[in-house]
């Protein structure tokens, strides 16, 4: 009996050690927090690191050689909406406004033909489109007080059939509405705090505007659109959070507020959540921890801001181990969805 007890104790002890070693081995399968975070940043800057493996090109024909990046194992993200927003030169993709004048089937074939060529010639992996906002002029499928849902569906299907992942943007769908004098005053003060000044941006203008959950005449259209596309989501889809300053968040950038964490639609979204370009925001003032909690991928097209975001988050993780646990979950999710 004593021998049996000793044997049992030895086995239990060995099992405990083995389990501890197994847990330690599992722990070691992850890159360092710094490298895991780098792998979630979508940026033109690689820092000669194999971990920062996402690419982003918003504008310009210089991206024609993007297959060079693909050959090196980098994923190519591009903004290909149609019209003037196509990123890659040499393609005649109609703008969403012009698309709404076409039959959905004709539009599908046009997009499919062009996106298939982009996939082959430019190795695009993720398209940062379509627009689902109720504004944005020619860039929007909302025309003549109507949302052209079949054309959004055609665009999405054509991209997916070409092997290109899509990104619904921006969330929540926005319609610029008139602000009260009090709201306008609050917005102007908030924009000075949260967003970069236009003169400090490479494009010379700021894309950060005010936002307000759609109410009134377009509320039903917004709900119908969201319900419609939510039935077609799959785990390879992305959705982009808005940088705009929302009335409901006290004119805090939506992406840096707590609103996304309380959003039932986002919590049930099966794909990846991505930010808009954080270069537009002032990372010295926005809550970067909220930005991190709200998204899986982070677009930053400024080298300075890429380094700043990385530094701020690594510092935050040093004082909050729960953020590292969350980082591992995001890392696993991105690896599963994009690879």
TrEMBL record:
GO terms for molecular function: hydrolase activity, hydrolyzing O-glycosyl compounds. Residues 1-20 form the signal peptide. Gene3D superfamilies: Glycoside hydrolase, family 3, N-terminal domain (3.20.20.300). The keyword Signal applies. GO terms for biological process: carbohydrate metabolic process. It comes from the Bacteria. Keywords: Hydrolase, Plasmid, Signal. This is Uncharacterized protein. It comes from Vibrio parahaemolyticus. The lineage of its organism: Bacteria, Pseudomonadati, Pseudomonadota, Gammaproteobacteria, Vibrionales.
């Amino acid at each position: 009996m004593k021998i049996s007890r000793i044997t049992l104790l030895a086995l239990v002890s060995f099992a405990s050690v083995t389990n501890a070693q197994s847990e330690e081995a599992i722990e070691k399968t992850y890159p360092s927090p710094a490298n895991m975070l780098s792998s979630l940043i979508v940026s033109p800057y690689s820092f000669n690191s194999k971990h920062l493996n996402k690419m982003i090109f918003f504008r310009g024909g210089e991206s024609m050689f993007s297959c060079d990046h693909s050959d090196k194992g980098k994923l190519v993200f591009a903004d290909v909406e149609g019209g003037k927003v196509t990123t890659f030169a040499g393609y005649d993709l109609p703008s969403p406004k012009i698309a709404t004048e076409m039959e959905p089937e004709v539009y599908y074939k046009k997009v499919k033909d062009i996106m298939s060529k982009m996939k082959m010639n430019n190795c695009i992996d993720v398209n940062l489109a379509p627009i689902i906002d109720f504004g944005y002029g020619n860039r929007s499928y909302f025309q003549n007080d109507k949302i052209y849902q079949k054309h959004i569906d055609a665009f999405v299907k054509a991209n997916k059939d070409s092997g290109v992942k899509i990104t619904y943007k921006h969330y929540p769908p926005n319609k610029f509405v008139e602000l009260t004098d009090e709201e306008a005053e609050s917005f102007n003060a908030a924009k000075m705090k949260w967003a970069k000044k236009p003169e400090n941006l490479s494009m010379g203008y700021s894309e950060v505007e005010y936002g307000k959950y759609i109410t009134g005449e377009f509320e039903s259209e917004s709900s119908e659109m969201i319900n419609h596309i939510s039935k077609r989501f799959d785990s390879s889809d992305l959705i982009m959070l808005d940088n705009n300053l929302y009335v409901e968040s006290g004119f805090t950038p939506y992406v840096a507020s707590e609103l996304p964490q309380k959003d039932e639609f986002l919590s049930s979204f099966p794909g990846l959540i991505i930010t808009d370009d954080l270069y537009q925001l002032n990372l010295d003032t926005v809550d970067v921890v909220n930005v991190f909690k709200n998204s899986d991928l982070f677009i930053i097209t400024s080298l300075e801001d890429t380094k700043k975001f990385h530094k701020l988050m690594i510092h935050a993780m040093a004082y909050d181990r729960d953020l590292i646990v969350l980082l591992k979950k995001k890392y696993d999710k991105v690896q599963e969805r994009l690879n």
